[in-house]
C-alpha cells in the first residue's frame, strides 16, 4: 500500500443502490474514526471513487459534497485534484454547532447548564496549565473591560473574550471548541442585561478568577467561576438585572 493514499486500498464495501451516497459517507467516516485514513490522505477522484464503491459518478459526487460540507474532505481542482482528508478546523465546527443550537431553539437553561459544565472545569484546568502568554492575554482583556463599562455590547463582547481566554488557557481543545459554539448563543442573552453596576461586578469577579489562576489555585478558580455562572444564570433567567444592579451600588 502506498503511504498517504487510499485510492487503491480495498477498504470499502460495495453499496446498495437505495442508500448510495449516504453509505459512502458512512464508510469514509468510519474509516477516519478507526484510523484507517488520516488527515492529508488522498481519498480519490470522483471517477476512482465511483469505481471503488461500484456506484455511478453522480452518487460519488453527492457523497463528496456531503463529506466536504461536514469537513471530512477538501476538494482540490487541477491536475492533482480530487478529495483529500481535511485538516481539523475547530472554528468551522463551532460555527456549525452554534447555528444548529439556534435552529433547534435551545433554552436559556440549557445554555447556562452547558456554560457551567465547560467553564468551571476550564477555570480549574487553566490554573494548572496557563502559560505566561495566557496570563498576559487575560490581563490585557481585563484592562479593556475597565474602559467599556458604559457600552453594554462592547463590554459583553470583551467579557466573553475573557471567558474564552480562560477556556483557551485550559489547553483542552474539546472544551474550547464547545465554548466557541456556546459563545454565539450566550451573547444575545447577556448584552441586554449589562448595566454599569453589573459591569463593575463582572470586573471584580474576573479579577478574582484571574488571581486564582495566577496563584495556581485550581480549587479557588473553580469555586469563583461556579459562583459567577450561577449569578449570571439567575440574573438572566429571572429577568432581575435591575435588582442586581441595585444590589451592586
From TrEMBL:
Q: Which organism is this protein's natural source? A: Paraburkholderia polaris
Q: What is this protein called?
A: FadR family transcriptional regulator
Gene Ontology terms for molecular function: DNA binding; DNA-binding transcription factor activity
**Keywords on this record?**
DNA-binding, Transcription, Transcription regulation
Q: Which CDD domains match?
A: WHTH_GntR
> Pfam families recorded for this chain?
FCD, GntR
Top-level taxon in the UniProt lineage: Bacteria
Provide the HTH gntR-type domain boundaries: 18-88
Q: Kindly indicate whether the keyword DNA-binding belongs to this entry.
A: yes
Amino acid at each position: 500500500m502506498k503511504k498517504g493514499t487510499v485510492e487503491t486500498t480495498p477498504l470499502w464495501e460495495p453499496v446498495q443502490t437505495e442508500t448510495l451516497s449516504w453509505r459512502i459517507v458512512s464508510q469514509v467516516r468510519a474509516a477516519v474514526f478507526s484510523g484507517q485514513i488520516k488527515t492529508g490522505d488522498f481519498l480519490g477522484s470522483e471517477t476512482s471513487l465511483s469505481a471503488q464503491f461500484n456506484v455511478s459518478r453522480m452518487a460519488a459526487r453527492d457523497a463528496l459534497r456531503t463529506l466536504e460540507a461536514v469537513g471530512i474532505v477538501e476538494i482540490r481542482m487541477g491536475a492533482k485534484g480530487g478529495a483529500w482528508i481535511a485538516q481539523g478546523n475547530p472554528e468551522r465546527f463551532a460555527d456549525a454547532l452554534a447555528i444548529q443550537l439556534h435552529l433547534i431553539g435551545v433554552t436559556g437553561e440549557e445554555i447556562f447548564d452547558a456554560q457551567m459544565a465547560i467553564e468551571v472545569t476550564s477555570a480549574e484546568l487553566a490554573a494548572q496549565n496557563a502559560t505566561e502568554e495566557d496570563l498576559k492575554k487575560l490581563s490585557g482583556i481585563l484592562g479593556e473591560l475597565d474602559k467599556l463599562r458604559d457600552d453594554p455590547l462592547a463590554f459583553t463582547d470583551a467579557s466573553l473574550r475573557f471567558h474564552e481566554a480562560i477556556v483557551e488557557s485550559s489547553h483542552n481543545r474539546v472544551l474550547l471548541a464547545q465554548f466557541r459554539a456556546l459563545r454565539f448563543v450566550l451573547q444575545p442573552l447577556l448584552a441586554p442585561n449589562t448595566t454599569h453596576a453589573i459591569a463593575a461586578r463582572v470586573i471584580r469577579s474576573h479579577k478574582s478568577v484571574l488571581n486564582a489562576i495566577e496563584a495556581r489555585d485550581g480549587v479557588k478558580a473553580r469555586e469563583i467561576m461556579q459562583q459567577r455562572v450561577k449569578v449570571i444564570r439567575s440574573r438572566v433567567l429571572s429577568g432581575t438585572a435591575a435588582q442586581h444592579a441595585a444590589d451592586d451600588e
